[in-house]
Amino acid sequence: MQQTTGGATSEFLKLLPELTATLYRAAPHEAALRGPIKGPFTAAQMKAVIHLGLCGSQTMSEFATGLGISRAAATEMVERLSEKSIVLREPDVTDRRVVRVRLEPAAGRFVGRVLADWQRRLDGAFAEFPGLDRETLIAFLRTLTERLKGSLP
Questions:
Q1: Which of 26, 51, 55, 73 has its CA 20 to 30 Å from the CA of residue 116?
Q2: Rounded CA separation 88/103 (Å)
Q3: Which residues pair with 89 in a beta bridge?
Q4: Strand residues in the chain grouped as ranges (E)
Q5: What confidence tens digit (pLDDT) does each residue in 99-123 have?
Q6: Where do the structural domains in the chain lie, given as residue ranges?
Q7: Residues 6+ apart with CB under 8 A from 13
């Protein structure tokens, strides 16, 4: 059954598959294989690597919360990323019972370059639309993401 929609929604529906494919291709997983990060990445691992690149060293609880996953899932994620020499686990300097996770130096430099490239591309796209309300756009994309993940009705 074909569902019809109008206007901007219809145009967005047409754009969404291309946007999805482009976002996947623009993610650093392909370049990472040629760089300091070895082995294929899952989407969840890529999200974790970018999260650490943006947030820096985090406790396991902060890491889990930032990714929206359980502490057990975060521990498993860190184990897999550690096996690929992407992250380091280390004791917190103020509380030795707390484990912190951070990117390995080479992975951190790589992710820094990726984030800088994304920033440049975003700034260029935003420059083409100087009147665009960025806060509304971000709120829309956040809501769309949550709805597509099934978190919102």
A1: 73
A2: 6
A3: 101
A4: 58-59, 87-91, 99-103
A5: 999 999 988 988 888 888 888 988 9
A6: 28-149
A7: 5
